[in-house]
Every structure is written in C-alpha cells, then in structure tokens.
C-alpha cells in the first residue's frame, strides 16, 4: 500500500506576543521546508499579486515569512507570477509589477525581488515535455519559473468560477503558464449565449480580452473565431446568460491544468503552502472580491500538491456556509437544486474533482493523506 502524503495544518489562533507569520514559519519548518537544499539556489515562490480592486489576495507578509526562511538557509528567493490573457492590470510585465507594488508587494515588504515569469509581453516561455501526460505533450511555462532550482507555491485557497476552487494546482498550472500556455489550457470551450437571459449590460464585453463579444438588438453575440474559451465573461455575468457550449470543457481544462502543474513540479524540489482565508467565490483575478462564502479555516503545507488541495477541499466542505454570501444566497433560494457541495452550490457549472483525479493519475501526487495538526 502506498504511503499517505503528509499535510500539515494549523488554524489562525495565536497567543499574545506570537505573530501569524511566525506561526506560518513554524508550520513550514514542521512540514520539512528546510530539508530541501537551498544554499546558493534560486527559489521561485509562486503566488498571485491580486488584481487591482481585489482585496482578497494574500498579504505580502505571508510571502516575506516564506522568503525569510529561504534566506536563512542562504537560498535566493524571488516572487513570481505570469502575465494574464484577459483585460486587467497584469497583462504585461511593467503593468504587472505596478499592480504588485500598488497591492503591497515590493522588496521592502517581501524581502525579495519580484520577477514576472514569462517576461515583458508574456512570450518568454519554455516548452516543457510533460511526464505521464494523457492530454497534452508539452506545456508552455514562463522561463523564469523553469530557471529556478527550487519551486515553492504560496496559494490563496478560494472558490473559482470555472475550476470550482483555486488551490495549489490552479496556482501552479494556470499561474505558471505563459500567455500562450493559458490560452492552450482554456481553448476547448467556446461561449454561448442564452438570449432570453441577456440584459444587454455589456459587462461581459468589458471582461473579454479578445474582442469576441458584440451586441445585436441589445443581446450579446460571441464570435467563435475570436473566442479563446477563457470563461472570464461567464464569471462576469450575473444573469447566467453565458455558458460553455462544450459540456466537457471544464473537465478538459482541469486535466490540462493538472498536466501544466506536473510540468512545473517534475524533476526538482518543490514545496507547497495554502492559506485558506477570505475564501471568496471567484478568482483573485477579478478586479473586485465578493464576500467570503466560508469562514477562515487555516494554513496548510505539504510536499504533495494533490494531497494539499484535497485537505483544503475536505475542510472547506465541512465548514458552515456564510449566509451573507453568494453561496448563502444560492442555498436560501426555495427552488435551488442543492448539490451539498459548497463549490458546486457557489458555481454550479464546475467539476472541481477532475483536477485532483487527473493529477493523481499522472503521478503529480496522491489524494490519500494524513493530516497533522499543529497548535
């Protein structure tokens, strides 16, 4: 029988005189971060700097806590993320760095430099063969991410409008893809319109980075040749007028994302941290954040990203939904079809489990874990 992966967990309680960042460092040490040879090695710390207007992203103090541990072992840490496909404040490196700085990430606050993984225009990438891949052959990963000797993921665990939840695999697989890599992961699905539900508000067109949405008689029309299938417009529509025309596109996205994460993690030391607080229903890529759907849970660390995500999911599913939230509003509707799954009840078109199932199949990790709780 295969050995269970170890996932270390601690809640957000602290004694007077003990900071939360110190508690995070104790968690990382207990989970074995310093068993990795760090001296003289470049260490990529992959995180999300938050879209401008979003306040749910992780504070820079978490990044500094991790970077300081690396520097204690004479490693050379840097924070990294790759550019986005969609409109916003992180489409190219100068804009991305400005966004990070405005949101509080700079060498003073984090104790290390910030390097945008896929370069100025999002085209500085390496095409990496994926071990055990079943969907793709290669992954287009930001060059700076792959140039690092050691990889650490520092993830804000939350909901997500297309993948159900945003955990370590999402942070790694989608986050480390170059702009072309992100397009490849999203490219199976195309967006359709329920005309009877469309209000002509034009919110979806503002979110579309491909100019694929126009309006005829005040109804949205999607140009399938231009549509990249990224799903941003679906998440932006509050009237459920937009949908994915390919029924298994979410499954395919989840599998591709797991294989991209495999490309990033294979053949080098990796360590993974997830912070489950401010659990918003949607991604931090939004220029806003809705109220949390669940109470704050705690901090997790593991060498196994699949086990880490599974542990976060398991604890999230046991949590009591917050009434004044998107999830709470859905559950309060008398005609709501209850899924008894917080992620599905928050975003009903997702199939989040496929990410973990496929990741386990390709050897990225195991869903079978032992949870070790620290006070």
Structural features, described:
- It comes from Selenomonas sputigena (strain ATCC 35185 / DSM 20758 / CCUG 44933 / VPI D19B-28).
- InterPro entries: 4Fe4S_Fe-S-bd, 4Fe4S_Fe_S_CS, DUF362.
- This is 4Fe-4S binding domain protein.
- Keywords: Iron, Iron-sulfur, Metal-binding.
- This protein is α/β, with parallel strands linked by helices.
- It has two domains: 5-186 and 249-373, Rossmann fold (3-Layer(aba) Sandwich); 191-244, Alpha-Beta Plaits (2-Layer Sandwich).
- The chain has helices at residues 20-31, 60-72, 93-102, 107-110, 143-147, 168-174, 179-186, 203-207, 232-236, 249-265, 305-318, 326-332, 342-346, 353-361, and strands at residues 5-10, 42-46, 76-81, 113-116, 125-129, 138-142, 150-156, 158-160, 164-166, 191-193, 213-216, 219-222, 242-244, 270-276, 298-302, 369-373.
- Strand 11 (213-216) and strand 12 (219-222) form a beta hairpin.
- The longest helix has 17 residues, at 249-265.
Indicate the topology:
Elements: E1 5-10, H1 20-31, E2 42-46, H2 60-72, E3 76-81, H3 93-102, H4 107-110, E4 113-116, E5 125-129, E6 138-142, H5 143-147, E7 150-156, E8 158-160, E9 164-166, H6 168-174, H7 179-186, E10 191-193, H8 203-207, E11 213-216, E12 219-222, H9 232-236, E13 242-244, H10 249-265, E14 270-276, E15 298-302, H11 305-318, H12 326-332, H13 342-346, H14 353-361, E16 369-373
Parallel strand pairs: 1-16, 2-3, 2-7, 3-4, 7-14
Antiparallel strand pairs: 1-15, 5-6, 8-9, 10-13, 11-12, 14-15
Helix pairs in contact: 1-2, 6-10, 10-14
């Amino acid at each position: 029988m295969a050995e269970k992966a170890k996932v270390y967990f601690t809640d957000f309680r602290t004694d007077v005189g003990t900071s939360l960042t110190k508690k995070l460092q104790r968690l990382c040490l207990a989970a074995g971060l310093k068993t990795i040879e760090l001296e003289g090695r470049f260490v990529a710390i992959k995180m999300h700097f938050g879209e401008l207007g979003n306040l749910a992203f992780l504070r820079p103090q978490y990044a500094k806590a991790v970077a300081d541990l690396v520097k204690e072992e004479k490693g050379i840490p840097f924070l990294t993320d790759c550019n986005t496909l969609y409109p916003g404040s992180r489409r190219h490196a100068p804009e991305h760095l400005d966004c990070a700085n405005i949101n509080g990430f700079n060498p003073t606050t984090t104790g290390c430099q910030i390097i945008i993984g896929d370069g100025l225009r999002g085209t500085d990438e390496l095409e990496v063969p994926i071990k055990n891949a079943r969907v793709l052959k290669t992954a287009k990963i930001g060059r700076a991410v792959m140039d690092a000797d050691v990889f650490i993921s520092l993830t804000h665990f939350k909901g997500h409008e297309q993948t159900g939840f945003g955990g370590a695999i999402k942070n790694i697989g989608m986050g480390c893809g170059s702009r072309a890599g992100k397009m490849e992961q999203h490219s199976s699905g195309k967006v359709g319109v329920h005309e009877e539900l469309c209000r002509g508000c034009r919110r979806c067109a503002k979110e579309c980075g491909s100019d694929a949405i126009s309006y005829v008689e005040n109804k949205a029309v999607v140009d399938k040749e231009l549509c990249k299938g990224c799903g941003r417009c679906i998440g932006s529509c509050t009237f459920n007028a937009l949908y994915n025309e390919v029924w298994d596109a979410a499954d395919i996205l989840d599998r591709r994302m797991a294989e991209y994460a495999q490309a990033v993690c294979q053949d080098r030391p990796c360590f993974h941290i997830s912070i489950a607080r401010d659990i918003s229903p949607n991604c931090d890529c939004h220029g806003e954040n809705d109220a949390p759907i669940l109470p704050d849970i705690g901090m997790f660390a593991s060498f196994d990203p699949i086990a880490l995500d599974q542990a976060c999911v398991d604890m999230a599913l046991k949590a009591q939904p917050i009434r004044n939230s998107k999830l709470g509003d859905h559950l309060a509707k008398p005609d709501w079809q209850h899924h008894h799954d917080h992620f599905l009840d928050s975003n009903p078109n997702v199939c989040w489990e496929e990410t973990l199932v496929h990741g386990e199949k390709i050897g990225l990790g195991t869903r079978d874990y032992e949870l070790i709780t620290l006070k």
